[in-house]
């Protein structure tokens, strides 16, 4: 049975107790819901891979209540500290060398000499991490390859019966996953565009190379699979017109003639669109399939701010699926 826990003191302490006992607890962050387990326990972390049916042991992000806790597991240089000062708590994940005496399990780090650390925003999230008192490993709380969950009901749809509990802190305000920045080399490398924009990062890091989106030029991070966030209907990008047999993922004024529409942001605001992205993909997929539509057509999204993260997720939703 999967418990749905309220985001109050009792719910938070129950969630922390389950995590400390090696259980699986999904919890809200500012980006998406994470599927959490004690990052110091190989057996607890192994349950994450089993519950998600994740095909490979990709490294996971460890979550902390504050930077001080994060830097007991990851070696921070001056740049890492400046980034943490500016963006934590918030949707930025840093890849850093593991502390020699760190406690993160080898399975969570996939045996790498580096570790992914993040301090998510949100009072409930911070209270949970503080009450747990250990790093919490958490990928997005969905079955592998499926659309990420931006509320507790999305989590329950995919994972009921496979996890111990979900701590329901309501919908996720940012709506796309954290930006992943690798600081282990000589210059910072963007591994995944996300909730902290590249423009904001550049204010601290200077210019960062980033993908000319829709082309797969990102350096390969373990666990980056092209096909991801995949609805069951095929996805067509940069639609300039739409057919009656298609479901339209609109941005700004809607193209006429679609069989079904979800508007990410009628006013054409990328932040609003990011927060509505995964719910929209889910809606168009299930309702579109029910109505016998053949495809999801996505209108163009601007290449700036959170638009880069949205374009990255759409590109992956549109890429060919493994058989
Ligand atoms: O917003 C988020 O980041 C959400 C919430 C739950 O925090 N989590 C999330 O986790 O998106 P996940 O597992 O779906 O994505 C983690 C990404 C993967 O692309 C993984 O390959 C990369 O981070 N990663 C983790 N550890 C790494 C490492 N040591 N080196 C390079 N990439 C790493
Ligand atoms: Mg994911």
UniProtKB/TrEMBL annotation:
Question: Example GO molecular function term?
Answer: double-stranded RNA binding
So what does this thing catalyse?
L-threonine + hydrogencarbonate + ATP = L-threonylcarbamoyladenylate + diphosphate + H2O
Question: Any one Gene Ontology biological process term?
Answer: tRNA processing
Q: Name one GO cellular component term.
A: cytoplasm
- Places the protein is found: Cytoplasm
Q: Keyword Ribosomal protein on this protein?
A: no
Q: Which domain of life is it from?
A: Bacteria
Which Pfam family is one of those matched by this entry? Sua5_yciO_yrdC
Q: Which segments constitute the YrdC-like domain?
A: 9-196
Stated EC number for the protein is: 2.7.7.87
- List keywords of the entry alphabetically: ATP-binding, Cytoplasm, Nucleotide-binding, Nucleotidyltransferase, Transferase, tRNA processing
Q: Record keywords: Ion transport included?
A: no
Q: Which residues cross the membrane?
A: none
* Positions bound to L-threonine: 31, 138, 178
- Residues annotated as binding ATP are 54, 58, 63, 118, 140, 148, 192, 229
What the entry lists under NCBIfam families is as follows: L-threonylcarbamoyladenylate synthase (TIGR00057)
* Role: Required for the formation of a threonylcarbamoyl group on adenosine at position 37 (t(6)A37) in tRNAs that read codons beginning with adenine.
Q: Which PANTHER family has this protein been placed in?
A: SUA5 (PTHR17490), THREONYLCARBAMOYL-AMP SYNTHASE (PTHR17490:SF16)
Family per similarity comment: Belongs to the SUA5 family.
The protein in question is named Threonylcarbamoyl-AMP synthase
Q: Which organism is it from?
A: Gluconacetobacter dulcium
């Amino acid at each position: 049975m999967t418990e749905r826990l309220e985001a109050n003191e009792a719910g938070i302490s129950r969630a922390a107790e389950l995590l400390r006992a090696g259980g699986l607890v999904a919890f809200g962050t500012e980006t998406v819901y994470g599927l959490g387990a004690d990052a110091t326990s190989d057996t607890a972390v192994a349950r994450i891979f089993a519950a998600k049916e994740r095909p490979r042991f990709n490294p996971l992000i460890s979550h902390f209540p504050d930077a001080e806790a994060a830097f007991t597991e990851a070696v921070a240089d001056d740049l890492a500290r400046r980034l943490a000062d500016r963006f934590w708590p918030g949707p930025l994940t840093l890849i850093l060398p593991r502390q020699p005496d760190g406690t993160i399990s080898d399975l969570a780090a996939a045996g790498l000499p580096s570790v992914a650390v993040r301090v998510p925003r949100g009072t409930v999230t911070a209270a949970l991490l503080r009450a747990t008192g250990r790093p919490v490993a958490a990928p997005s709380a969905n079955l592998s390859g499926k659309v990420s969950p931006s509320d507790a009901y999305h989590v329950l749809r995919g994972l009921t019966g496979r996890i111990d509990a979900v701590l329901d802190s309501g919908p996720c305000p940012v709506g796309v996953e954290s930006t992943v920045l690798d600081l282990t080399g000589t210059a910072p490398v963007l591994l995944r565009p996300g909730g902290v924009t590249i423009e904001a990062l550049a204010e601290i890091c200077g210019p960062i190379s980033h993908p000319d989106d829709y082309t797969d030029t990102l350096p390969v991070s373990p666990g980056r699979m092209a096909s991801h966030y995949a609805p069951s209907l095929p996805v067509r990008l940069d639609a300039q017109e739409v057919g009656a047999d298609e479901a339209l993922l609109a941005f700004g004024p809607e193209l006429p003639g679609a069989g079904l529409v979800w508007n990410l942001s009628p006013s054409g605001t990328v932040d609003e669109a990011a927060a509505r992205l995964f719910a929209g993909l889910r809606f168009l997929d299930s309702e579109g399939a029910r109505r016998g539509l053949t495809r999801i057509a996505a209108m163009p999204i601007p290449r700036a701010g959170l638009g880069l993260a949205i374009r990255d997720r759409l590109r992956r939703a549109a890429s060919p699926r493994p058989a």
